Each structure stands twice: as structure tokens, then as C-alpha cells.
């Protein structure tokens, strides 16, 4: 392995091999045919995965031989990402050194890139200068990249451009930067890169138009999970084409037709519908600016009018909101002021969010010149380390000289140049102030003085300090101090200023990606508490970011489980649900002392005054405790009554008056989760699921991991249950969650893994538990009759054990019986409605 690593080291290996084997394709020469066959075999070895797979097997064998070689020793050749990065650098070396007229060399280079796509690390093959280092881009680089792409097949060009678009979106246009003052400039930068690669030199005629339009047409294409910035960049790039008016008119017509389809409104995931509306409004803004205005014809069409009406008739609040926004915004462009549609009082969203959607038609991104690549605003300069000195570098304390003439309680401080012995009068013993005893330091017991670490790491005071401690992966003390104080510091700083919100993404990245390389005690719990603190304090920032990383990014199974667990625990805390002391989750809550530390100092009295004025436990507290017990007693009595086998006639029943019941009823608390559950957690999680399923071949994809899928379903279950039956967004959550559960009921991963099937059953049971009121059950019968019948049929097979799933235990039957019972209650009560709907 070491020899192979030395042979392949460097970025000139492939270029050197090609230089020695250069041939002319299609010449008919026997020698050229031999060289061409040798080159194909070489490409299959290097870029086809043979070298990588054999090296990976060798690494596994070496790592298992602990007694022979050093444990954990791996070669870069057997690591997929590093090997693909080496392949990329060799390809770039050939691209930069090849003559632009050498067709055979370009075909050879393109063949390596095309085979490399099959390794599974597509992002590592894209030229990093295009998305990480724009200042290095030149006209010559773009010209050579265009030549390289021209020798790829159409679907291979699609892979390259789609991957590049995702990388541009992730690195320059993430959601948390949308309010940044340079965001529009970032959109222009991405648009300029797309123009240079896809628009110039009649690029749209080479198949690039279809690739770009996939991102702004039906379903949002391969980038439906990406933020709006990349779609703005694509539209800005397409504006540079001479055929832009025709392209946007056809795109707008296609978007309006999709917008008006009733099946699309009822069954398309919300994330896809949002992308459709975003692109519709962006294209409408451009079409409206082109005379004669084609937008008036579209606004009067039956597809548009039916689309707005169908959206307004939907029971899904988000769908209604999208319909109102489209109808109102298009009306402002084509109608006079007295005839414009206005939904201001009935919009199911905040004024700020509605204003952002309305402003989409006014966005007019300008194509910049080539100098934008030299703009220093895009240089990602990491924050400088704070200039404070460490504790060990502080100035040594001066020697304290004690004299007999000193007054009691005072000392005179002076620098003593030499050692001096001074005789003290015994009468001045009372004035003597002894040195305090040093703190006990277990580390000082080390025999070797050179190994004693006397540097005390102070607790972080600012979020930037916390970040530096978290990212120091070589110091156990720094990471320990950071994790111990992370949760408290985040909660204390979250509501004061923008310190936490400005670094929220960096904190999540550092926390989720931390490795327990020191086998730290309580590492997982401390990290999880910090992640929960971010999700609780900043749900609208942390929630979408975490949901995206669960399905994307280079994270391990354990790290994805941490993110899902964090969302579930944060949902319980935001809903106000108290965790009992006997629960395993109890230790993940902040202790009483930690909760006190989360209070900002300016909002709390000094300890002496706080103890004086703080409310003490009074008789009212005792009465409230008794009331709580009296509420619990009837519940326990009812359970005992149901379990009792005695005849009903001899049972004693106690009736309460209405006033007693009202007095004992628990006051409803404020459920903060219901206010943010859709945009922060549930919407991103379900939206990313449908994007993942679409990109990777449905619910039967081999990329799905049973344990992670089970935890994902349980997280959605917790979100639904914590939101409660009275949340305004519950109908929308039930519809979205039910669609996911039904899509999994016959999937291979569900039938072969009992954990996934049990999670689906628990989720189904939670749906009926949340919809236990008559109005909710009636809504299920009226609007989700098909799903209701399908669920009943499927659960009946699970209960009977005839669904072909793994296992057939009593607990499984109990879950299935509970779901079946609740489902039949709805079906039997609203049978007439169901029959009428089915007929």
C-alpha cells in the first residue's frame, strides 16, 4: 500500500501516462488501436473503481492486524473522498496543460471524468475553483472547462452542472445568509459562473437549457431542496440569453399549468409547491417587464383562475397561503388598484413572511462583469482568535512586603529586587495576613514536574470563545470546558443581541461534527444538551439547518441520530411538557443551578436582595399540590375500576359538581412549539424526505438505514404529539405525516425490519390519538377517506400476520390492534360519509 501510494502520488500521474500513450482515435492504425485499448483499461483501473475497491479491502485487512501494524493506519488510496480528490487534481492538471485544439487529449480527459462519476463521490470531482475559490477564475479556465464538458455525453454534463449548482447553493447561497447585505452579490456571482459555462458560445444549444430549466419547472427538479438563491441565479443567467423572452414565457405557462392542477395541490409535497410558486413569481416579474406584457393573458387564463380557486378551497393552511400570495401578487401587476385582490386579513402567515413572497416579482438580479470574481466580499476569512492572553502568560504577582508599621488590614506592595529576611515583631502577629491555601489540584500530584499542566482553561464568556474551544480538537481540557458550559452559555446569550444567531450555524457544525477522541465522560449527553439549547432558542435557524444535514452532508449514523434526538427533545421542551424524574431523558434537562445561570445578569437581583424578595413556598403551593393530587386520583380510580372484576352494581361511584371539576381543571399552558413547528421542524423534515426519495429511487432505496429511518419516523411522531390536538397546524401535519407512513407500509425496508414497522404503527396510532375530537375525526372521514380505508386494510393484515413483515410478537399485535380499533371507530361512525365519498 505504501509503494502504491508513492507511485500514484502527485497530480501529474494521469497526464504523464497519457503523454507516453498518446494516440489518434479513429485513425485505423493498429498501433493507435492498441494504445486506445490500453488507455481504456487504464481508465477502468484508475477511475472505474478497481484500484479504490482493492485498496479499501487492503486497508480493512491491515487495520484488523493489530499485532502487525499500527492500529488505525489507513492509506489515502482506500478512502473514497481522498482518492476522488486526487483524481480531480490530476484531471485539472490535464485540463490546464492541454492544448485547446488537441481533440484526442480532451476526449481522454473527459473519459476519466465520466468514469469517475461512477465512484459515488461526484462533489469531489468538481473543480473547486468554481465554488470555493472564485478569485482564481479566469477566462481561460472557463474556456477550458467548456471544452471539457463538450466532450461529455448529455447526461454526464447534467451530472456535472447539477452537482455544481448544489455546491454553489451550499457554499454561497445558504438560507442563513439571505438577510446578509452581500446576498444579492452572491446571487450575481453564481449567475456569472453559470453564464460563462452554459450561456456563452450558444451553450443553451448544447443541452444546457434543459438542465437549467429542470431547476425552475415542475417539482423543482434536482434542486427542490435548495434555497431560493440558486433559482434566482439560474433565472439571472438565463436572462443573458438572446432567447430569454421565449424561454421565460414558456416556463411561466408550464408553471401556471402545474399550479392549477388539482392533483398537484392535493398530493404534491409542500416543499415542491413552494418551489413552484417561487419560480412562478420570479418568472412573472421578468415577463411583466417585457412588452407586450404576456402576463395579462396568463392571469386571465382558466389554468391560473382555477389554480387560485383550488388553492383557496384547500384545508391545508400552507396551500391556502400560497394561493393567496400568487393571486394577490399577480393581481397587483395586471389589475388596476381598485380591482386588485387583497387577502391581508386572512393570510395564514406573518406579515414579514408574506412581504418576502410578494417581493419576489420585484427581484431583478443584474448580470455582473468579470471583475466580480475579484471582489473581496467572497473571501471566507475565518474569525480572528481573540487577543486575550492565556492565564499562564499573565504577569507574576508582586512580592508583598509586610512591615510592623502597617495598619491592620492593609499591605504595602513593592517590587523586591533580592531575597531579604526580615524579623517580625511578635506584637504585630495580629497584623499578619497569611497567604490563602492553594486550591487542591489533582494534576499536581504527578511526579514529573514537566508533565504538570498548570494552565486553567477559563469558562467561555462569549460565543466566539466557545467556538474556539469546540474547534480545538487536540485539547481535552478545552473541549471538556466548552461542552460543560455550552448549553448554559447559549441559552443565556440567545435572547440578548445577535451573538448566538450570527454563529448558530458554526456552533451546530462544530457540535454535530465533534468526535469523542478522548473518550470523554458524559460526552454524548453534554453535546446533545448543547444541540438542544440551540434548537430551543433559535428554532427557525437551527431547525431547517439540522433537517437538511440529516439527509445530506458527510455525517455518520451516530451524528444523524444526535440531530434527530435533539429535534425530539427540543420539541418536548418547547411544548411545555415536563419530563418525569424516572425518565431516561430527565438528565438531559438543565439542572436548577444551570437554569439560574441561563438568566442574564441584568435581569436578576444580586443574591442578597434576591434572597430577600424571592417568593417562598406558601400555603398556596401546598393547596395547589393537593389539587394536583386530587386530579390524579380520579384517573387512577378509573383505571382501577376498569381493571376490577367486581359487578358494576356494587361499585361505589363519586360524582363531582361542575364547580369542583372546573376548579380542579389544569390551566392550559402556552405551547411555543405550535407557533414554529412547521417552518422550523416538521416542514423541513418532511420536505427533505420527499427530495431524498425522489433523488434516490423511492422508499425502497438502498441508501435508507433501518435504525435511522425508525428514529426519523419517531421524531415526526414526537413533533405531532407535542404540538397537541389544538394546534392550528395539526391538520397539515397529519396530512403530511400520513402520506409518509403510507408510502412506507409496503416498502422492503419496512417488511424486513421490525423497528421500522413498529415506528410506522406508533406514528399511525399517534395520528388517531391527536385527532380524537369529533371535528377532527369527521375531517379525516371527509378529506382523507382513501387513506383511512387503506390504513384499515393494511393494519388488519399486520394484525393477522399476513403482510409478510418480519416478526409476529405480541407487542406488534397490540400496536396493530390499537391502531385498528381507533381506525374502525372513525370508519363506523362516519360510514355514510365514507361510502358517499368512495362512490
UniProtKB/TrEMBL annotation:
Residues 389-414 have a biased composition (Low complexity). Transmembrane segments: none annotated. One of its GO terms (cellular component) is cytosol. One of its GO terms (molecular function) is telomeric DNA binding. Residues 415-425 have a biased composition (Polar residues). One of its GO terms (biological process) is 'de novo' cotranslational protein folding. Residues 460-571 form the Telomere length regulation protein conserved domain. Residues 377-452 are annotated as: Disordered. InterPro entries: TEL2_C_sf, TEL2_Regulation, Telomere_length_regulation_dom. Belongs to the TEL2 family. This is Telomere binding protein. It comes from Orbilia oligospora (Nematode-trapping fungus). The gene is TEL2.
Amino acid at each position: 500500500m505504501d509503494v502504491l501510494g508513492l507511485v500514484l502520488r502527485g497530480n501529474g500521474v494521469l497526464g504523464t501516462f497519457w503523454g507516453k500513450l498518446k494516440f489518434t482515435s479513429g485513425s485505423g492504425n493498429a498501433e493507435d488501436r492498441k494504445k486506445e485499448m490500453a488507455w481504456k483499461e487504464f481508465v477502468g483501473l484508475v477511475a472505474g473503481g478497481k484500484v479504490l475497491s482493492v485498496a479499501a479491502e487492503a486497508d480493512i485487512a491491515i487495520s484488523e492486524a493489530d499485532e502487525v501494524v499500527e492500529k488505525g493506519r489507513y492509506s489515502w488510496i482506500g478512502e473514497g473522498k481522498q482518492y476522488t480528490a486526487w483524481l480531480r487534481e490530476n484531471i485539472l492538471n490535464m485540463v490546464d496543460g492541454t492544448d485547446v485544439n488537441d481533440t484526442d487529449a480532451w476526449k481522454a480527459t473527459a473519459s476519466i471524468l465520466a468514469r469517475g462519476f461512477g465512484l459515488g463521490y461526484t462533489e469531489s470531482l468538481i473543480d473547486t475553483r468554481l465554488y470555493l475559490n472564485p478569485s482564481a477564475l479566469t477566462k481561460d479556465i472557463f474556456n477550458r472547462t467548456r471544452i471539457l464538458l463538450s466532450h461529455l455525453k448529455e447526461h454526464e454534463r447534467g451530472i456535472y452542472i447539477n452537482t455544481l449548482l448544489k455546491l454553489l447553493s451550499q457554499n454561497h447561497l445558504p438560507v442563513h445568509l439571505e438577510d446578509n447585505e452581500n446576498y444579492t452579490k452572491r446571487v450575481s456571482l453564481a449567475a456569472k459562473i453559470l453564464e460563462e459555462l452554459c450561456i456563452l458560445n450558444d451553450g443553451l444549444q448544447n443541452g444546457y437549457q434543459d438542465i437549467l430549466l429542470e431547476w425552475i419547472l415542475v417539482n423543482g427538479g434536482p434542486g427542490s431542496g435548495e434555497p431560493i438563491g440558486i433559482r434566482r441565479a439560474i433565472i439571472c443567467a438565463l436572462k443573458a440569453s438572446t432567447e430569454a423572452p421565449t424561454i421565460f414565457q414558456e416556463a411561466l405557462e408550464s408553471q401556471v399549468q402545474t399550479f392549477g392542477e388539482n392533483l398537484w395541490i392535493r398530493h404534491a409535497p409542500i416543499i415542491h409547491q413552494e418551489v413552484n410558486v417561487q419560480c412562478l413569481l420570479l418568472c412573472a416579474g421578468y415577463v411583466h417587464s417585457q412588452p407586450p406584457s404576456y402576463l395579462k393573458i396568463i392571469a386571465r387564463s382558466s389554468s391560473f383562475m382555477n389554480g387560485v380557486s383550488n388553492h383557496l378551497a384547500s384545508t391545508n393552511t400552507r396551500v391556502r397561503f400560497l394561493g393567496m400570495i400568487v393571486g394577490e401578487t399577480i393581481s397587483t401587476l395586471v389589475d388596476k388598484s381598485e380591482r386588485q385582490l387583497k387577502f391581508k386579513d386572512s393570510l395564514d402567515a406573518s406579515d414579514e413572511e408574506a412581504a418576502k413572497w410578494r417581493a419576489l416579482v420585484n427581484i431583478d438580479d443584474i448580470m455582473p462583469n468579470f471583475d466580480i470574481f475579484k471582489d473581496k466580499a467572497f473571501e471566507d476569512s475565518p474569525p480572528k482568535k481573540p487577543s486575550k492572553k492565556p492565564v499562564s502568560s499573565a504577569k507574576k504577582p508582586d512580592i508583598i512586603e509586610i512591615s510592623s508599621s502597617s495598619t491592620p488590614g492593609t499591605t504595602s506592595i513593592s517590587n523586591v529586587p533580592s531575597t531579604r529576611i526580615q524579623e517580625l515583631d511578635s506584637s504585630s502577629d495580629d497584623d499578619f495576613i497569611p497567604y490563602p491555601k492553594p486550591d487542591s489540584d489533582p494534576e499536581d500530584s504527578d511526579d514529573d514536574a514537566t508533565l504538570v499542566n498548570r494552565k486553567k482553561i477559563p469558562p467561555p464568556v462569549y460565543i466566539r470563545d466557545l467556538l474556539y474551544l469546540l474547534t480545538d480538537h487536540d485539547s481535552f481540557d478545552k473541549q471538556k470546558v466548552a461542552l460543560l458550559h455550552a448549553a448554559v452559555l447559549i441559552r443565556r446569550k440567545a435572547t440578548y443581541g445577535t451573538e448566538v444567531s450570527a454563529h448558530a450555524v458554526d456552533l451546530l457544525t462544530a457540535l454535530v461534527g465533534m468526535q469523542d477522541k478522548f473518550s470523554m465522560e458524559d460526552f454524548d449527553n453534554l453535546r446533545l444538551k448543547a444541540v438542544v439549547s440551540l434548537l430551543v432558542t433559535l428554532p427557525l435557524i437551527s431547525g431547517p439547518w439540522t433537517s437538511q444535514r440529516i439527509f445530506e452532508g458527510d455525517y455518520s449514523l451516530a451524528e444523524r441520530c444526535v440531530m434527530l434526538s435533539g429535534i425530539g427533545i427540543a420539541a418536548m421542551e418547547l411544548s411545555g411538557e415536563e419530563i418525569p424524574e424516572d425518565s431516561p431523558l430527565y438528565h438531559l434537562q438543565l439542572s436548577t443551578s444551570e437554569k439560574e445561570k441561563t438568566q442574564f445578569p441584568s435581569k436578576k437581583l444580586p443574591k442578597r436582595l434576591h434572597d430577600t424578595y424571592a417568593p417562598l413556598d406558601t400555603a398556596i403551593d401546598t393547596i395547589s399540590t393537593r389539587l394536583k393530587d386530587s386530579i390524579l386520583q380520579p384517573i387512577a380510580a378509573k383505571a382501577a375500576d376498569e381493571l376490577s372484576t367486581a359487578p358494576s352494581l356494587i361499585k361505589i361511584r363519586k360524582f363531582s359538581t361542575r364547580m369542583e371539576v372546573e376548579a380542579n381543571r389544569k390551566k392550559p399552558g402556552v405551547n411555543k412549539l405550535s407557533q414554529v413547528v412547521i417552518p422550523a421542524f416538521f416542514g423541513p423534515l418532511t420536505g427533505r424526505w420527499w427530495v431524498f426519495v425522489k433523488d434516490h429511487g423511492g422508499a425502497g432505496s438502498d441508501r435508507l438505514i433501518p435504525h435511522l429511518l425508525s428514529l426519523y419516523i419517531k421524531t415526526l411522531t414526537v413533533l405531532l404529539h407535542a404540538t397537541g390536538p389544538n394546534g392550528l397546524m395539526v391538520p397539515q401535519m397529519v396530512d403530511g405525516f400520513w402520506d409518509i407512513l403510507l408510502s412506507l407500509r409496503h416498502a422492503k425496508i419496512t417488511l424486513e425490519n421490525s423497528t421500522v414497522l413498529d415506528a410506522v404503527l406508533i406514528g399511525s396510532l399517534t395520528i388517531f390519538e391527536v385527532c380524537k375530537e369529533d371535528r377532527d375525526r369527521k375531517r379525516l372521514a371527509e378529506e382523507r377517506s382513501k387513506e383511512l380505508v387503506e390504513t384499515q386494510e393494511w393494519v388488519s393484515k399486520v394484525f393477522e400476520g399476513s403482510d409478510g413483515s418480519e416478526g409476529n410478537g405480541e407487542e406488534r399485535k397490540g400496536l396493530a390492534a390499537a391502531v385498528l380499533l381507533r381506525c374502525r371507530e372513525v370508519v363506523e361512525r362516519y360510514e355514510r360519509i365514507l361510502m358517499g365519498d368512495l362512490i
